[in-house]
From TrEMBL:
GO BP: any one term: cellulose catabolic process
Residue ranges, annotated region (Disordered): 194-213
Record family assignment: Belongs to the glycosyl hydrolase 1 family.
EC number: 3.2.1.21
Official protein name in the record: beta-glucosidase
Length: 496
């Protein structure tokens, strides 16, 4: 059924603007959808431990069952197919494949079989798998053995062995690999703020251990080094026969000066982009080193690359993997000349929803930090393209909708998710416009396929184009109208 008439809409001129082989679909992450947290030999991850620690998840929920995708993937693939996608991005649970995680530890064949079956099911449906090796769930055994990423000497070989196992077992069929999902959010939420696993922070009222002033920077560095090793491993040992691509996905929202005419606010906005994005993107896609603004604020608390490491890291991604959601107005927090506290990890910023002349960053969602800001997305695509000049794969983008969690389907109009449709209409439209302006964009993955377990927010934040009834035994799925919208929009945008 065709519901949206794009030929007689402002989007008419965007018809056929995306390349014929453009990948589009939805992204998910293992801990958020799979469930089956302790079955068929899976070892616990740091997120399983967090979920089972009282007070860590706002609705006191766990991801023990989540969407039960582990049980229902043979129904989910056809559902996704009915949404018109040609690609699906999902992550592997490390501790499902190697329950204890380490390079000498045994492999769990049942875990391998689950992903192997999922990959086969996707390929049979003509859906191209994009596989993320790491979407935040460290095997708990590695956390207990040596504090995982805080000990790069021990961690890097363990991650490399896990990656090698995945390339060896799935690489005959998987041609699109992502090493890490959002190393920046992982490092900051888990080791600075502390709300995410492994719950480390200097905030002693909430967390027992951690040092916000140093640990996020070590954890970021460890991810870069292990990512780069895995990239070169793939290129040397697998790419010659498997012919796939491999890269890293970075999180990054747009930052705009609070007062556009203030040089100090302009500098603050640039610094925001550097702390959030260039932290990883400059080493991988640019200069090979951390941005000067970070070195200036953090000094020796920010690890240094040796010459050999720089060489290893620089150029270690076939594409720019982009997760992006929103935009902010920013200016300096601590005035110039005064010391920035060592716990500051965002580049000394104050954030605003409305700028100095009263312009809002966009319509509110159900998620405090997230507003509909397609204008910022357009600027971000331009900034990333101008600075790095590598093909962009949009690997996550999406929104919650206000009040969506309170009413339940099939009654009511919760499935008519107008806010989400407007979000996708605007953001996907910006992708098409950017392509028309010469920016090389090759994929778009909406976040996300199913309402799911939104980490420390539990089941309260619904990002899906599919409503999930978490009360029901089968986690019943109900397509929202945004799924139909995207199907028709991409049909219009992709060249035939
Ligand atoms: C991403 N921010 O995390 C993750 O990759 C997903 O697993 C997650 O469910 C999704 O976005 C929605 O939250 C982010 O504050 C968390 O800008 C926070 C931010 C961005 C991305």
């Amino acid at each position: 059924m065709v519901e949206f008439d794009f030929d007689n809409a402002p989007e008419a001129g965007l018809k056929g603007s995306l390349r014929k082989d453009f990948f589009w679909g939805y992204a998910t992450a293992a801990p958020q959808i799979e469930g089956a947290w302790n079955v068929d030999g899976k070892g616990p991850s740091t997120w399983d431990v967090l979920a089972h620690t009282p007070g860590r998840v706002i609705d006191a929920s766990t991801a023990d069952d989540a969407c039960r995708s582990y049980d229902f993937f043979r129904e989910d693939v056809p559902l996704m197919k009915s949404y018109g996608v040609n690609a699906y991005r999902f992550s592997l649970s490390w501790s499902r494949i190697i329950p204890l995680g380490g390079k000498e530890d045994p492999v769990n064949e049942a875990g391998i079989k689950f992903y192997s079956d999922l990959i086969d099911e996707l390929l049979e449906a003509n859906i191209t798998p994009f596989v993320t090796l790491f979407h935040w769930d460290v095997p708990q055994a590695l956390e207990e053995r040596y504090k995982s990423m805080l000990d790069p000497e021990q961690y890097v070989p363990d991650f490399v062995r896990y990656a090698r196992m995945c390339f060896g077992r799935f690489g005959d069929r998987v041609k699109h690999w992502i090493t890490y999902n959002e190393p920046g959010v992982y490092a900051l939420a888990g080791y600075a703020g502390g709300a995410h696993a492994p719950n480390r922070s200097s905030d002693r009222e909430k967390y027992e251990e951690g040092d916000t002033s140093t640990e996020p920077w070590i954890v970021g560095h460890t991810q870069l080094l292990s990512h780069a090793q895995v990239y070169h491993l793939y290129k040397a040992d697998f790419a010659p026969t498997q012919h796939g691509t491999i890269g890293i996905t970075l999180s990054g929202n747009w930052s705009e000066p609070y007062d556009a005419s203030s040089p100090a606010d302009q500098r603050a906005a640039t610094r925001a982009l550097e702390f959030e994005i260039a932290w990883f993107a400059d080493p991988v896609h640019g200069t090979g080193d951390y941005p000067d603004a970070m070195r200036a604020q953090l000094g020796t608390r920010l690890p240094a690359f040796t010459a050999a490491e720089k060489k290893l890291v620089r150029g270690s991604s076939d594409f720019y993997g982009m997760n992006t959601y929103t935009a902010f107005f920013v200016r300096d927090k601590v005035p110039p000349g005064q010391p920035v506290p060592p716990e500051d990890h965002k580049g000394n910023l104050a954030w605003f929803d409305v700028n100095s002349v009263g312009v809002s960053r966009g319509a509110e969602s159900d998620t405090e930090w997230l507003r509909t800001s397609p204008w910022g997305f357009a600027k971000l695509l331009r900034w990333v393209w101008d600075r790095y000049r590598v093909p962009i794969y949009v690997t996550e983008n999406g929104t919650t909708a206000r009040g969506e969690h309170v009413s339940a389907p099939p009654g009511g109009d919760v499935l008519n998710d107008v806010h989400r449709i407007e979000f996708f209409r605007a953001y996907v439209g910006e992708v098409a416009k950017a392509v028309q302006q010469g920016i090389d964009i090759r994929s778009y993955f909406g976040w996300t396929f199913l309402d799911n377990w939104e980490w420390a927010k539990g089941y309260t934040d619904r990002f899906g184009v599919t409503w999930v009834d978490f009360e029901s035994e089968d986690k019943t799925r109900y397509p929202k109208r945004s799924a139909a919208f995207n199907r028709e929009f991409f049909e219009h945008l992709i060249a035939h």
